[in-house]
Amino acid sequence: MTEKSIRTASHDLLQGLIDLGIEYLFCNLGTDHAPLIEEMAIWRAAGKSFPKLILCPHENTAVHMAGGYAVATGRGQAVLVHVDAGTANAAMGLHNLCRSRIPVLLIAGRAPMSTFDGATGGRDTYVHFIQEPFDQASVVRPYVKWEYNLAWPAMAHEVISRAGAVMHSDPTGPVYLTLPREVLAAPVDVASIGAHGHQNHLAVKAQGADPQAVKAIAEQLMQSDNPMLVTAYAGRNSEAPALIEKLASLCGIRVCEFNTVYMNIRRSSPFFSGYNPAAFTEQADFGLMVDVDVPWIPKTTRVNPKAYWAQFDVDAIKRDIPMWGFPLNARIEGDSVRLLTQLIEAIQANASAEFKAKVEKRCVLLKAEHEANKQKTALLAKQPGALNAINPHYLCAELGRHIQSHDVVLNEAIRNTMAVFEQIPREVPGTLVGLSGGGLGFSAGTALGMKLAQPGRRVVHVVGDGSFYFSNPSAVYAVARQYDLPILTVLLDNGGWSAVKESTLRMYPQGEAKSTNQFASDLGYDTDFAGIAEAAGAHGERLFDPADVETSIARCLEALDAGQSALLHVRITPL
User: How far apart are CA 66 and CA 436, in angstroms?
Assistant: First the structure.
């Protein structure tokens, strides 16, 4: 057997990543990755290219960076983490990717298995004995579509191909692969693989639907007098917002979003009716849910019992939500762009003069309503606030005036999220990202990933002080500096977790916690958040006086445009 006919599993793994189209490996490495590190060095010496390494001091940054890159490009990337410990640190990010249906391949090493037989890669240090749990994959199993352990070196390339096919198949999502160190170092006999060893596992993408099923929904829509549409993540596809607006214009439909994940319709569209579907569900006689996980909160929403509700969704059954139940008369799983196109075509083919006249009247009312909402939103931003209590609506309105239409805004303001949505209106698809999961600290790493994918755009993330702690900020700004990825952080500091306080008040509005003002949510008002960013070379700005809002924003954007990350620490109304 010649030397050229032998290679390691690490070689085939790297080749598999290249063939899958992986451009970046977001890495937090450990002792388990020694065979891969050696293989990369061999490739460099030979002048061979492989996915670029982005070294991340914390796994939360790595996972969210990969997610942000995938959101911006549609191409899933790979993350390398260290055994069970790295998997545990990555789990929160995997939760967010799962809930957002973002394709990412998380690859974790496994502690060596061999102790006495002298196998290459066997146990040679203390941690190899304590980093082998009974079930490492169980840490992230609830959040992944697929998991696998590479048990045989000759399968490395095929396993990567399979992982890519699963994560990119609709509904897309994260997958998990573990790599024992001895297997990575083991030789692969090229001849043993054979002609069919490296398979191309194609992803399965969502399609359209039976025209008759779509036509039945169209007929119900054309018969309705007060239709509405609710969506949250249709805008992940850049073609969807224009189609939603076209359908709304064609039929006189109000469009609402709930827990917005992407921009699904232009905010200046007269058919956009805001972020509270519950204000209209009791009067609606027809409803269409398009790519939305939670259209409203049933406990506080009244729905017309005679209304006809239909659903278009890439994940109609909600595979990862154990219990899900909202009123539905028709349910179609598929690509919302194709389904909306079919619905529009069905309506255009059957629209009568009577229907068009009815739509025209509805459109007049919706345009008037939209204009009234604009005025209400503007009023919220009129008052600047006071010293150490800046009005978030005022701040966000000023920020909205300073940024450009193609700049990307990530919203993790949590209890101040409406200030971001309402005062920084987005018009261009792909310029808004919200949080669909429950893992706080998503926006900073995601912003880095989106900046990596779109270097010509400004990327701004708005975050609360409580969420900021979860983002591992020292790792975020270290990566931003090392890889020249400037981002702007707008930190809304109210001194704690307002969501915790408000949740307690919702359950116990006249309880003891309220009477004693003890909500276990006060994080203090003394942290110099700008100093954290400055320690990694970013521009830090401290904004406590509303009179300084405009100049502070301008200085941050000036730094950003010069290639320096910036953090704007804003004291808003305290808890």
Answer: 16
Contact 104, 66 (CB under 8 A): yes
Q: Which of 286, 340, 284 is nearest to 309 (CA)?
A: 286
Strands (E), 448-503: 459-464, 488-493
Q: pLDDT tens, 451-503?
A: 999 999 999 999 999 999 999 999 999 999 999 999 999 999 998 878 888 88
Domain range summary for the chain, segments of one domain joined by +: 3-193, 211-367, 381-571
> CATH code for 381-571?
3.40.50.970
How far apart are alpha carbons 468 and 440 in whole angstroms? 8
**Dihedral angle, C-alpha 557, 560, 566, 570, nearest 10 °:** 10
Q: Let me know: does 490 contact 460? Beta carbons within 8 Å.
A: yes
pLDDT in tens, 448-464: 999 999 999 999 999 99
Tell the CATH superfamily of the 3-193 domain.
Answer: Thiamin diphosphate (ThDP)-binding fold, Pyr/PP domains (3.40.50.970)
Strand pairing partners for 223? Answer: none
pLDDT tens digits for range 521-571: 888 778 999 999 999 999 999 999 999 999 999 999 999 999 999 999 999
Q: Per the CATH hierarchy, to which homologous superfamily does domain 211-367 belong?
A: TPP-binding domain (3.40.50.1220)
- For 415-498, where are the E strands, in sequence order? 432-433, 459-464, 488-493
pLDDT, tens only, 111-166: 787 777 777 877 777 777 777 889 999 999 999 999 999 999 889 999 999 999 99
Secondary structure class of 491 (helix, strand, coil): strand
Distance CA 419, CA 211 (A): 41
Show the tokens assigned to 239. 């073609």
Token pair 């004693």 in the structure block, residue: 516
Round to whole Å and give the CA distance between 446 and 441. 9
Instruction: Examine domains 3-193 and 211-367 and report if their fold is the same.
Output: yes
* b/e sequence 510-523, b meaning 16+ C-beta within 10 Å: eeebeeeeebebbe
- 495 torsion bin: left (phi>0), alpha (psi -120 to 50), beta (else): left
Spatial contact of 348 and 223, defined as CB atoms under 8 Å apart: no
Q: Name every residue whose Cβ is closer than 8 Å to that of residue 448 and which is 6 or more positions away in sequence.
A: 61, 64, 65, 68, 476, 479, 480, 485, 487
pLDDT at 2 over 70: no
